[in-house]
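name: query_chain
kind: protein
chains: 1
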Amino acid sequence: MIRSKSDYKYYLLEDRKACHKKLNPSLKQRIVERLFPDSNYEFTKTLRKLEYLMNCKSGILWGG
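structure:
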């Protein structure tokens, strides 16, 4: 469970490794990722962000 921003960054890094993405992509690879995004990886990133927002952010929108 994501409890802090550092946890969020750690999980994103581990998800990137699990999807066999390079940690420091070259300029060409970054352009290709922008033009042709990996939908599975993008979905995973969105779920991680939602989990981070639900667990760490408080306010009217998040019920905290």
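note: The chain has a mean pLDDT of 89.
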